[in-house]
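Lecture notes, part 5. Sequence design as translation. It can be helpful to think of inverse folding as translation between two languages: the language of shapes and the language of residues. The source text, in structure tokens, appears below.
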């Protein structure tokens, strides 16, 4: 089968979804008001509440939610075959992710830019709010650990990418100063920054002296440096420390100094990257060598785990945190929410689609695919590497050398993961401060105290657990739990939007139906994992880390659902204000 057909069909579905479905939702369901005074204007402070043009905000929002997850998840999920992954990415994006990301943004804007955790108190009750805040706290902690692990491993595996990634930081600061202090345009400076980054990538790919290879610095993979750690482990440790220092600084700076301009650069980087991959696809038109349904995938059932594995490639609770945590505080006009929220979800779907295509076309034969995806564990550990190799192969279709293509693709993945990482740390700081305020722990409401707690706990979670990869396996071990908890969070957010719509007397089925589907699949998968796999009860090996965290999340979610059922069926809800 020619892989170009997958791209064409997928793009048609996305285009119809945005052009018609999102417009109907905006006008008839969410009823956007162009005259509504958004929190960005109402509480403008130049730090977190900053009115932002929709193209710039879309860049921040899109790159914050994109990360590495819509690449890693689909690259693993094709283990069950390309057809179920393709269907869930396309249909899930249009009917679940779009209304979720769009809806949480509108809901937050109508509630003073508050997070979905705080809004839970108004719509369901205080107990549910506390439970939800702790679920969100655990999720962003896992996001920090998973994405720090991904970035550090890519730096170790692709040292030619390091220079470009770190060059982006001073370039973004320069752009932020030029735009917000000198009132310059952002488009041209960001394109210049992107050219500098890719120029550095080309040079580093061909000039070893420009590659920051810490493994070689520590004497190679087989050299024991200290504390029994190999050169690879020491390089990984150093990169984690560097990343934690970076995210501490980045997450406490005003959004216009680094977050927005860097995300705007990354939005162009994503457009360029997607253009390279899709253009290469048009020229090469490689055949799909992976099976539509993989009959050899018998160790783990695709139903319901496929939906959890793809995660952000179709719908993600983390997107709701970004929508209600940072994007809602920067929305200039309420009518911009459709473009920022729904189009951001579509952009994520387009990225997930090319991730599927890159992986299912990289292998020469079906037998090669089956050998590489011999088990779910093999798919999990090799999925990202398969994507990078497959994407590099597509890039050769427009005459980019394979080594340079691999460097550029790794830069794109790292840049998005870093964007998600410091946005997540910023969100975690907000949540810690909110919990501190709730329990009258004043120290936690301080910016630097809350950020320190976020950074130290994230570093500990990624570094301390030991797994099949040895030291620093936290991110690898947490991936299955990240997917399930992320989907549960999306289900709760859809539940909140449904309650809000019902109390407004509007058609709530657009969010209620995907909510039921997401809850059904995710709770089924999570009960299987927590009760029958991680507990050791069903014959699996006891994993206290996943069993403890997963069991706690499961209890919290059931508690929220019970509280929400009562709130949803309440005949006399509290009077709703204009903001609600």
């Amino acid at each position: 089968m020619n892989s170009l057909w997958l791209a064409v069909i997928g793009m048609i579905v996305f285009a119809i979804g945005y052009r018609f479905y999102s417009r109907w939702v905006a006008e008839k369901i969410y009823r956007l008001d162009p005259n509504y005074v958004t929190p960005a204007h109402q509480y403008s402070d130049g730090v977190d509440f900053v009115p932002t043009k929709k193209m710039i905000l879309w860049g921040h929002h899109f790159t914050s939610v994109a990360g590495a997850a819509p690449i890693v998840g689909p690259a693993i999920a094709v283990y069950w075959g390309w057809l179920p992954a393709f269907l869930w990415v396309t249909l899930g994006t249009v009917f679940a992710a779009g209304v979720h990301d769009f809806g949480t943004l509108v809901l937050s804007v109508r509630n003073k830019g508050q997070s979905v955790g705080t809004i839970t108190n108004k719509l369901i009750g205080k107990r549910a709010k506390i439970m939800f805040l702790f679920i969100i706290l655990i999720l962003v902690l896992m996001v920090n650990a998973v994405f720090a692990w991904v970035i550090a491993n890519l730096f170790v595996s692709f040292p030619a990418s390091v220079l470009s990634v770190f060059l982006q930081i001073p370039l973004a600061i320069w752009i932020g100063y030029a735009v917000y202090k000198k009132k310059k345009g952002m488009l041209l400076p960001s394109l210049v920054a992107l050219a500098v980054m890719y120029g550095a990538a080309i040079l580093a790919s061909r000039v070893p002296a420009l590659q920051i290879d810490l493994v070689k610095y520590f004497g190679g993979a087989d050299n024991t440096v200290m504390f029994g750690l190999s050169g690879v482990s020491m390089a990984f440790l150093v990169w984690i420390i560097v990343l934690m220092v970076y995210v501490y600084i980045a997450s406490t700076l005003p959004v216009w100094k680094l977050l927005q301009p860097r995300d705007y650069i990354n939005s162009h980087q994503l457009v360029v990257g997607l253009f390279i991959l899709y253009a290469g696809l048009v020229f090469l038109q490689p055949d799909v060598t992976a099976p539509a349904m993989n009959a050899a995938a018998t160790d783990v059932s695709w139903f319901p785990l496929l939906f959890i594995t793809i995660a952000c490639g179709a719908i993600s609770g983390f997107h709701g945190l970004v929508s209600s945590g940072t994007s809602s505080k920067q929305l200039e006009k309420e009518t911009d929410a459709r473009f920022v929220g729904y189009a951001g979800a579509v952009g994520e779907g387009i990225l997930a689609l090319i991730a599927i295509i890159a992986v299912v076309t990289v292998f020469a034969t079906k037998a090669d695919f089956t050998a590489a995806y011999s088990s779910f564990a093999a798919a999990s550990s090799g999925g990202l590497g398969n994507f990078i190799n497959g994407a590099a192969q597509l890039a050769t279709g427009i005459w980019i050398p394979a080594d340079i293509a691999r460097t550029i693709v790794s830069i794109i993945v790292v840049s998005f993961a870093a964007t998600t990482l410091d946005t997540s740390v910023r969100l975690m700081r907000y949540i810690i401060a909110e919990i501190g305020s709730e329990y009258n722990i004043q120290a936690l409401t301080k910016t630097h105290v809350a950020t320190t707690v976020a950074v130290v706990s994230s570093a500990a979670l990624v570094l301390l657990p030991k797994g099949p990869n040895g030291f620093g396996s936290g991110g690898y071990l947490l991936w299955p739990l990240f997917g399930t908890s992320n989907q549960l969070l999306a289900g709760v957010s859809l539940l909140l939007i449904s309650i809000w719509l019902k109390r407004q007397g509007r058609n709530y089925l657009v969010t209620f139906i995907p909510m039921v589907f997401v809850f059904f699949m995710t709770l089924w998968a999570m009960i299987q994992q927590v009760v029958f796999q991680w507990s050791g009860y069903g014959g699996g090996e006891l994993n206290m880390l996943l069993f403890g965290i997963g069991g706690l999340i499961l209890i919290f979610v059931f508690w929220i659902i019970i509280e929400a059922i009562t709130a949803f069926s309440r005949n006399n809800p509290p009077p709703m204000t204009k903001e609600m």
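The translated text above is only one of many valid answers, since several sequences can fold into similar shapes. The first helix runs from residue 4 to 29.
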